[in-house]
Amino acid sequence: MKNKLKFFIVFSLIGYLIWYLFLKPYDYKVVFKAQTYPGTINQSIKLWSSTNNHSKFLEQESFLELDQQLQFNDSLHEYRWKITPLTDSSSRVTVWVKDLNNSLSNRLSIPFSTTNFEKRTKSTLVDFNKKLHDHIENFKVSIVGIVEDTPSTYTAYVPLEGPQFGKASSMMKNYPFLSSILVDHQVKLNGQPFIEISHWDRTNDSITYNFCFPIIKNDSLPQNKSLHYKHFKGGKAIKAIYNGNYITSDRAWYALLDYAKKNNIAVDENPIEVFYSNPNYGGNELNWKAEIYMPVKK
Fold this sequence. Notes:
The protein is of the alpha+beta class. The chain has helices at residues 2-23, 38-50, 103-109, 116-136, 167-184, 251-262, and strands spanning 28-34, 55-62, 65-72, 75-87, 90-99, 139-147, 153-163, 194-201, 206-215, 228-232, 237-244, 272-275, 289-295.
């Protein structure tokens, strides 16, 4: 009986060592909690990766799982991110890290010393967590709930497309064109400027959208190849208030999707943003206001 027990223990230890040294899919794991919802974390990882010269974003296996590579001198590190929603305002982030060039030596050293690989991983993720925290402090999303009828209006608009992150800059470029041509032709405005998303590619973070000025329709509207007109029809939607830089107003889109999922509300993933501040005037970004709507399916 003792021999069987010894054999089992030795066999288990050998099995564990084989798994730890050769089969374990990562060298190091880091877990931390973030006081925000998954959409903000997803977009923050991608933005952080795009602004890091040593980083390469690989793929998004799902909205909650992302792969990334970072180059450190002669070492290539693979980061596998998993975002787990916890509450309405918090998430858990798990990061599995593997040194693709020195994996075996790291695994042999980690149990006995604090390696440079561990130090670098901790430092890198502390940097990300700080940037995430700073970002969270610079915007606010407040869910209002379902509204029965968003306003309908006739609009002058410019059709645009591009990355989500470029939405605000495109809006700022086209704001002077739209406002000046309408003012020059004495067209009466009928509300706040807004954008209407017609297609949202969540895998590639790109959008097709219309930048709209609500107007009073008349018989002598200005004609321009870049300017279009149509009737925007409102309807039932989930509403949120966003305060912050309009570059990241899409954080409210993800908050609305989370709200819809938790409340079993079927929505069209084509949000509408109504802007109450002009970014060209600057000012405290937390005082900028936008109403964000996620249309409810009929």
